[in-house]
Protein 1
Amino acid sequence: MSLLPEPRPILEMRGISKSFPGVKALRHVDLSVYAGEVHALMGENGAGKSTLMKVLAGAFRADPGGEIRIGGNPVRIDDPLAAKRHGIAIIYQELALAPNLTVAENIYLGRELSRSGVADRRGMIDGARSVLDRLGAPFAPDSLVAGLSIAERQMVEIARALHAESKILVMDEPTTALSSRETDALFALIRRLRADGLAIVYISHRMAEVYELADRVSVLRDGGCVGSLTRDEILPDVIVRMMVGRDLSSFYKKEHGSGVHNEPILRVTGLGDGRRVQACSFTLHAGEVLGLAGLVGAGRTELARLIYGADVKSSGTIELAGRTVRIASPEQAIEAGLVYLTEDRKGLGLFLDMPVAANINLGVIGRDARFGGLLDRARGWQRAVEAIQTLGIRVASPAVEVGSLSGGNQQKVMLSRLLETRPKVLILDEPTRGVDIGAKSEIYRIIDELAKAGVGILVISSELPEIVGIADRVIVMREGRLVGEVSGGAITQESVIALAVGEGARA
Amino acid sequence: MTEKGALMANTEPTGVVPLRRTRLKGWMRTVGMLPVLVILCILIQAGTLYFNGEGRFLSAQNLSIVLQQAAINTVLGAGMTFVILTGGIDLSVGSILAAAAMTSVTASLDYGSLGIPVALLTGLLFGLLNGVLIAFVRLPPFIVTLGSMTAVRGIARLWGNDTTVFNPELPFAGISSGSVPIVPGYVELPGLAAIALVVIGLSWFILRRTVLGVRIYAVGGNPDAARLSGIKVWVVLLFVYAASGLLAGLGGAMSAARLYAANGLQLGQSYELDAIAAVILGGTSFVGGIGSIWGTLIGALIIAVLSNGLILLGVSDIWQLIVKGLVIIGAVALDRYRLRGSART
């Protein structure tokens, strides 16, 4: 449905690269967006979508050599204010509103109207009302944002963008927290904005939405632009192939025999928390590496935390090695032989100010203690020295603070804390996130050896090649539910992502 | 902000951290404010030499007074160290001290030396109450102990009908008036100072040699990670507030022994602030997880030396307040400066 002759794009990004030390997050990405179109941006987690949009928003500064043009004129976007000045508005997944202020105050935030220093409330409410009317918003400009639903808050963000006379609107996964009715309303609104001539960049994982809404799709993979499709070329399987298309399988280690036919070690039945996780049932066998795939926000971490007792369950049972166990807290889980490696190493995992030795021993100091509470320091030191050796942690001494180690070494310290408790079941949440290539392959080796030793391992990962490379069987989660399973030779990136985005019932 | 986060995730060195730097940092942390204390002593000694013609500060008699004066604050500071290491605060120790002194002196009138356990029990009771409200009801420590500071002060006044209770024959006055010979015939440690040292020693043992101690640091360093790694956070919180209360009770007994009396209105007023100041001066981080009991001892000594020295130099009590306040602010500035170099962001 291209309009001939093509008008000039309102936004052109050319040859945008962004390197972080050790990582090339974007390489020579081109993106052209026209006024009056919805341009979908797709790609796996970590493909570079967010980085690209952060460059556009002025949150990241791109490497020299690239160029951004707005309406044909080259511009420099060095900070968020510059982005705003050039008419770019970004609506992030985590909405950036002040809940304690009114809708009007939020719309005028940073640009408050005033008469000789006194806030002009009347004027702001009137100004906000005209924008809200244009959007057909069902709430008043003087209502508090705290009382609005997520969908309504999104509308406030859109109103703020319109009010600032933005020409380019970027929406990052706007439907994640919306009901289907709210989604329909949002789509209607987006279509109206498109008709008004706005350029809309729409980041989404959901094939159905992209199919319904997008005029064009650009696909990113590994920080590079794979290609753009126009409306009539958009086909789900084409996009999936573009998103995946690579082979890294030799990098992974899988020497343990498939544990699929061993006896079950963990059986989860009907587990749910009433919100983010619904009636999940699966079985993990001894010596098996079971992958848990799904998109970000599908509820994988929430499911793991429920099993581990970190959050409150509303339904479901857990059986460990054939016995039903009550796990209401992490201590009980550890006691039962089930441990969980968090995805948030610094926030939820490590004690950064404490030495490596203390971090490794924290889970077992109670068991090792003499006279019911005295530290066995020699034992702890020995454990630390051995763990450093077996896991190949690069550190000068166990007395070094863990906060000063690299990501990969921190990850191994965290892992060794779990392994010291001799678990029967290991849940690993993004075990290689923020870890360099070398440490990655070492972590795969450790996983492989644990499986050989008969530990049941559940691996949550957003990196498809990783899941495909190390898992004996993969279960896939979407919107809080387990929606499918693939095993053996049927595990491919295509089959897993198809289940994760909900295209096709069974691969 | 996001940029910084993402950059930091990727700029971590992959190499091995030089051990020497780590050692140096640890050493600086341990030594902490000791040089400040030494310099302060020298300055005051020089000052008294200059203004009074004789160095009155560094005499056995005066140093013994300084230790005696530092003792109660050291004991309260030890309890406060436990609490602040978990990232909490206990504002109620001054009031608890007053209440414990009241119950202690009253009990001593009828039951003699049982006054000491009565003081300890009083302190423990109020400390446990704080702990329960913080660990189970999950109220913020500042608010809980602000409330108990006020309420317990009221209870202390209520106990003696808002009068001063005396016991001129207080049976356990010896813990204050007596002394412990260190080098018999030459050096003696005042009784209260000896108690304070024992408390410091015990606290060090708990913090550095027991499982509980490691868990206190862990809870203060990262409460979420502590819970996820299977630590019973409530046990730790209950312990630290109970310990702080118990030590405030001990402080009450010490104070009663010194005065042969207790007064619910005046006793222990603003002691919590001196205890917090001692902990912070000692280099313990206000957000928890970093610090040592030795630092608290040095912090309490700095405060006592400062008060004593300013009196010797003839500085008015008004100026003493101003100087003390500035020293506390300076110390917190130092705390910030230290934290900047560590892994915490």
Protein 2
Amino acid sequence: MLKAVQVVAVGATKMLKPLLLVLAFLFALQSLPLPAAVLPEQAVEFLYHRYDQDGQLIDGPAVLVRKNFDSTFSLSGEYLVDTVSGASIDVVSTASEYEEERIQQTVAMDYLTGKSILSLSYSNSEENDYEANSLSFNISQDFFGDLTTITMGYTKGWDEVGRVGDDTFSEEIDRQHYRLGLSQVLTKNALVNLDFEAITDEGFLNNAYRQVRFVSDGVRGYDFQAEQYPNTHTSRAVALRGMYYLPYRAAIRAEYRYFNDSWGVRADQYEIAYIHPAFEHWIFELKYRAYSQTKADFYNDLFPYQDAQNFLARDKELSTFQTQTLGLGVTFEFEPTSIPLIEKGQINLFLDYLKFEYEDFRDISQEGYQAGEEPLYEFDALVGRFFVKLEY
Amino acid sequence: MKYLKILLPWMLLLAMTGCGEIKPWVKPYERDNLADPIMSFGRLGIANAYMHHMYQSREGARGAEGGSGGGCGCN
């Protein structure tokens, strides 16, 4: 009985910790002089997104509507659809192609009080074998003559994992995010953001279908078994971003992000962008992004034998690889006089070319090679975004 | 508990800022450039959020994608 009480007490303390953090933060705010920050604009956003890779197409629309009330309260709703057709290399290697749809719905509200914005949102994402839910709380506060903004956030997520064709299969994941951000105006032409986020997951973290391969006496020289991940995962990411306004009307954006996790993955990401307005209503953007990561401790492209270790992964997202992205975008801004209610709008077209190069993930769809000597896998993809925003 | 240790000093800092006054070194009338939409980290709204999701489902890294927002104090 005593043990049960202790377990409940420990559980309650864990649940209360985020709440106590928020209360402590709100208490701290009371000591500050408070007048004026601003809510995001009241607007309708429409996006058509398209990810096109050899054999795999993911596309769909997304819509966001935001309505502000009395300049202190804002409500928004978002609806996003991903339609997946074809299959990635993991699935091509071990299963048949498929088609499925993911629908994500989010409702959010923002409350402005003095120089603070408190935000609460709930999101649900559903596909035929996976459901993800998350509840987020964020608070941001301007300081020092509005030159500094500090943000804090907490998200609680709970997922349900299923498996197509197996009604008895049902697993769960609990997820928590802790966010801290600092945004700082440095000069009249420069500002920086520093963001930190820690994420912890617990539950069924491997894929319900994906398999690893191991050396065997079979015809191919290898065979498959189900992957097996640890049931806990903790990651930390920190990002530094800067924007600089050039002597003429143009801007440079630069970013560095560092990531590591309890599975041994370490990643570095660099991004630089040049944003150049021209011809009165147009903005052009050119972007380059480089990403590299090391593999997870329990990743192997080809294990030496079956059940070679406790944890087994052959997910290419946990392998050693580099990604490069080259992006181009154009924005047309307008202030329509003939369309009632619409104050201003923008139409955007963005294209990103991505190249993924793996260092220890082999393309086993290639035939005529010894096990473990297949060519290393690589692929490229084109991502298109058509985005319209209308402020009303 | 580990993250609480990280967050507590920030909260103390926030509480202490009420005790002193720091004069802004970039005056409100000097913030035209910062207020320009091209200086916004999130000018593409849900189109930016989509890219974060796209990368997150293909790369091992996750978190700190941005969206802390604010900062220019221009509004």
